[in-house]
Structures are given as structure tokens and as C-alpha cells.
Design goal:
2 copies of one chain form a homodimer.
Chain A lengths: L8 H8 L7 E6 L7 E7 L2 E7 L9 H13 L17 E3 L2 E7 L11 H17 L13 H18 L3 H15 L8 E4 L8 E5 L5 E6 L6 E4 H12 L9 H14 L4 H28 L12 H12 L9
Antiparallel strand pairs in A: 1-2, 2-3, 3-5, 4-5, 6-9, 7-8
């Protein structure tokens, strides 16, 4: 469910009066997405997405996200382009929330990942990293390695109720990850998406019938961090089967396509296993926190944190970059 | 949340291969609706809604609903038109569910009802009733007066936990309603929508800036019943303020616009108060049943049954049709 804030007709019309988008034709809530309220908006000018930014997003960071999307779209990345009102501003206010209209992107996100998705994904990720290279303003990763210890502390009281011994296992795993984590001056840094899960990547069929990436969405975890960490997030999000096994065919397709556009340095290749462990830890901890902090009756789908414990264990056992598909 | 069934890309493509809708361009879950899974579907041929029928809908009744929509659309009613596949059939199967594609209707449902919505609503309801007059096949109202006693029985164990004394009050109110209920041969019978709440009615601005009805959706409670009962449902759904007071201006606008196209008979006018009590009872009982039967942790928004207790009490106190806006 991704409509947390209802927008009255009057408020919507007043809001749209500041844009040059023509007659309002339709306005429907979108089920996808968990952080913000998203509406499909149709006007005489076409299809758009209206987003109301909810509590998890810091309003002071919204200009950075919107500027990054505008920068990337201007360089040919298929990502939502913030639409400016007649006064030139894209970030506005609606129903008491910060709000923005972005262009609608065609395409479908893959409900079931196939190996054919992973090469175009790898190429799109590399293009994203290259296009972000001249976006100068930095945004620290609020869910990077420095955040994991404090997050684990907040899960300590309830963690073992999810699985006995979980907290001790995470203490040890986190210590190992942080000890092996590469310094930010040893690997290439840049603008990363940091949350490129299948529901954030749209595909359309190409002329040859194979899927092509038509768009990347939901940049509200984007930040300035190790580029290879973004790959590690994708390996976590795209390369495991439903039964928990790692699909090295998908991983190889993703990595090879990425490297055709941006070859990884020796240091990046060597760091990939620990980056994958870190990415597994990041999603494990945020899911675990949501799991322990969400009241049982809340209208929120809680995602299983233990899925990422299994991924963390896989990456901890992996014997070097080659076993990950490099 | 109105996506209960996830559809894989492969299943969707196989499903669409039976239609002549051109290239698949987008497929997004829609947040609105509570009974079925609804997706916004965009193809080279335009915008459509794909509905997967979930448990509450009896698959054997779907042909009736789809035939009614086709009948009404052919008579100029703005309602979803079932799209036929190349074999001529609109009702198909997808992801283990009955499924159908319908045309997309432009317009917005009013998040906040204003008196200006009620005259166009009354006109649209009358046109719906007139257009259904030559749709011969009948479908009994599964949530009509015969269903209310059994429904109240199922709420008996848990009802008083919602409000002390509630079950006894409903026993007395239901006996009064059933004793005064008009026989079906005394009032005009026809095809009614039976669930015409604001989220099922789309509006667009007319040339004069006033709202016009652009579409009626969600015909899956439609049935053959007293036409005036459909008006009673609308008076319940559209004519109360958030504070529980009855807005007679809205009701008068609705009823006057309806009667310009289909004047009510003396018997219908006399029956309107008890029909309103019955409609309040119907929504009270289904909400009460959902309230008492839904586990506290379920991912379903439970609607407050007591809102309809207040409406029931209002209609029980109402002194004749004039006090309702007739």
C-alpha cells in the first residue's frame, strides 16, 4: 500500500494551477512503493507520477534527489524527470507534505527475475555511475557502514525473538565486515542508487524480443558512496533464487555487462565479497528494525529479515570474487 | 491495498498474446479498490484496467457483470467496457484467477464530496437505471433484505464487543425495517449498482467548470433490485458530513436531478425512508461482520461499522420523505 496521504480534489487543482500541464484527466493511487505516497496523474500533457514525500524522507534532502534525477535524465538515463512549475521550481507542497511531479516512465518491473534481465541491469547500473560522475554535490549514505552498529543496537532488545542467537551472530558478522571494509579513498566513489531492487527497474522488450531497461526509479536512497557497493546491492537483490541459492549465471551476466562499460579495478574486484556482506547486513538490519519496531496490527507489509541472514551467510562463505560471478 | 495477486511478466505476456492490444508499455498496481486486484495497463492501443477477481466474487457471476457493463456502455453509460480477446471472450484466466481487461475511464473520484457533485450523480444514477431497463437477465441481490438476518446472526457473538447493546439495537431495527420493507412488485425493479460510493464515481470538469460524471466503476455488487434502493444507497454514501450530520442540500440536488430523468412514483417516495434505513443496515452489517471476523493483524483496512449505526439512527428518526430532501 503506497497511499498514506489522501489529496482532496480542491487541493490537487490548486496544486496543478501552478503547472502548465493542461486539463486534469485522471488521478489514481499506485500500489507499489513503501516509503512515499505515489499517484498516477494524467493530464492533457500526458502521464506523470505525483509523489508526496512521507516521514522517512528528510525534506532538506529532497533538492539533492531531484537535482540528481534532473542531472541523470539530462545525460540520457531513463529516470523520472522532475517537472517544474511555471515558477521554475519542482519541489512544492501538497496536503501538508513536500511533493513533486515527475515524468512517467514506460516499462514493467520484473515480478520474477530471469537471467536475461541481469545483463541490461548491469549495463544500466554502469551508465548510471558514469552519468553521475560530474554531479558534484555529495550526499553521505545514511544507511552505510557507520549506521549499521547503531541500527543493530536498536534491534538488540527484540532481535533474538525473531531467531534465537541472531543478535550474537550479527555482532560477529558486523565486526568482520567493518574490519574488512575498504577505505573510501581506495575505491572509486560516486553517486549510487543504493536500492536498485527489481521493483525499481523497468524493462521493455527490445527489437530482438530481449528485455531492455526502460527506466530506473525511486532515487530516495541515492547517495555518494563506493560505486562497487551499488553492484553489491544488486547482487543481493537480483541474484538469489526463491530457495535462497545464489544464481551465478545472473551474477555473471550483471557483472560482465557492467564491466563492458566500466571495468572494475583490482581493488574493487577484491572488495566485492565484503561489499556484498555489507549490503546483506544493511537490508537485514533495516528489515529487522522494521520487524521489531512495527506493531503487529500495523497496515504495513513487514519484509522477512531472515532472507538477508541467509544471503549474509552465503557471502560470508563465498571463496573470493570468482565464486560471485566475477 | 488492492493488489492481492502478483502477476509475473511471463504470465502477463502469455495472457496478452490472446488480445490485439499491441506492445505492452506499462503495468502498475492500483491502490484503490478492496475486493479485487487491479492493475493499470498501458499498451500501444491505450490505457486499460486489468482486474483479477479475488475470493469474494463468485466466478459464475462474472459473465453477468461483464454483460451488464457491455450493455450499459453500448447505451452511452460511461462505465468500463470489457475488452474481448481475439476469440471474442472477455472473461479469461490469469495467475489462477478469473481476469478481464476493461477500458480505462478518465476522471477523478471525489475525496471530499461537495454539493456540486450530487446533481450530476443523481443524473448519472437515473441514466444508469434507464439504460439497464432492457437488460433482461436478473441477478438477485445477495446482500438484500433476506441476507441481513443471517448476517446479523454471524455478528451476534462479537457484536456487543464493538459497542455494548449493539446487537439488541440491530435486532429491533432490523425487525422494523423488514416489517416495513416494500414488496418487490409494488416498486419499479431493475438493474442497480448497489455500491455507488464516491470512490466508484469519476468526475471531470465540464465546460462551465462544474463537475460532470465521466464514469461509474466497480459493478461487482450490481444486481436486480428496487431502483429506489440504489438511491437510498447513494443518500447513505454521499449525503452525510464527516460529523455525521445529514446534508439535505446534497440530498435534494441528487434527488431532483434523478427525478428530472426518472420521476419517482408515489410508492417509491413513500418507501424512501425505509429503503434508507435498509441501506444503512446493509453497510453496517457487512462492516460489522468484517470488523468482528478480521484478525487484528490482517493487512486490510477495516471500516468503522458505527458510522452506519449513526446513519441508521438518523433515518429511523427522519420524519417522512421531505426531511430526506425529496
Amino acid at each position: 500500500m503506497a497511499v498514506y496521504t489522501e489529496v482532496t480534489d480542491e487541493a490537487l487543482r490548486a496544486f496543478l494551477a501552478d503547472y502548465a500541464l493542461g486539463e486534469l484527466l485522471a488521478f489514481r493511487g499506485i500500489a507499489e512503493g513503501v516509503e512515499n505516497s505515489n499517484y498516477a496523474l494524467k493530464t492533457a500533457a500526458g502521464d506523470f507520477i505525483l509523489t508526496l514525500y512521507e516521514k522517512r524522507v528528510d525534506p532538506r534532502e529532497l533538492p539533492w534527489f531531484l537535482a540528481l534525477m534532473e542531472h541523470l535524465a539530462a545525460r540520457g538515463i531513463g529516470c523520472p524527470l522532475p517537472v517544474k512549475a511555471t515558477d521554475g521550481l519542482a519541489l512544492r507542497s501538497l496536503a501538508g507534505r513536500p511533493a513533486a511531479i515527475c515524468t512517467f516512465l514506460p516499462g514493467l518491473w520484473p515480478r520474477r527475475v530471469r537471467p536475461e534481465h541481469c545483463a541490461p541491469l548491469g549495463g544500466a547500473l554502469a551508465r548510471l555511475h558514469l552519468a553521475g560522475a560530474d554531479f558534484a554535490e555529495m550526499r553521505p549514505n545514511g544507511l552505510g557502514p557507520e549506521a549499521w552498529g547503531p541500527l543493530l543496537e536498536r534491534c538488540r532488545p527484540g532481535g533474538d525473538a525473531v531467531q534465537p542467537g541472531l543478535v550474537a551472530e550479527l555482532d560477529a558478522a558486523l565486526a568482520g565486515i567493518l574490519a574488512a571494509w575498504p577505505a573510501t579513498d581506495t575505491l572509486p566513489l560516486g553517486q549510487i542508487h543504493a536500492d536498485l531492487f527489481p521493483d525499481n527497474v523497468f524493462f521493455l522488450d527490445g527489437a530482438d524480443g530481449r528485455p531492455c531497461v526502460s527506466g530506473l526509479i525511486d532515487f530516495y536512497f541515492a547517495c555518494t558512496d563506493l560505486l562497487a557497493y551499488d553492484i553489491a546491492v544488486c547482487l543481493n537483490a537480483w541474484c538469489f533464487e526463491a530457495d535462497g541459492s545464489y544464481n551465478v549465471t545472473r551474477a555473471h551476466a550483471l557483472l560482465a555487462a557492467y564491466q563492458r562499460l566500466r571495468p572494475l579495478s583490482a581493488a574493487e574486484r577484491a572488495a566485492l565479497p565484503v561489499l556484498c556482506r555489507g549490503a546483506a547486513m544493511r537490508f537485514l538490519l533495516t528489515r529487522l528494525y522494521d520487524w521489531t519496531a512495527t506493531p503487529a496490527g500495523a497496515l504495513v507489509t513487514r519484509k522477512d529479515p531472515l532472507e538477508y541472514l541467509r544471503k549474509l551467510r552465503f557471502f560470508a562463505r563465498a571463496e573470493g570474487p570468482a565464486s560471485l560471478g566475477l
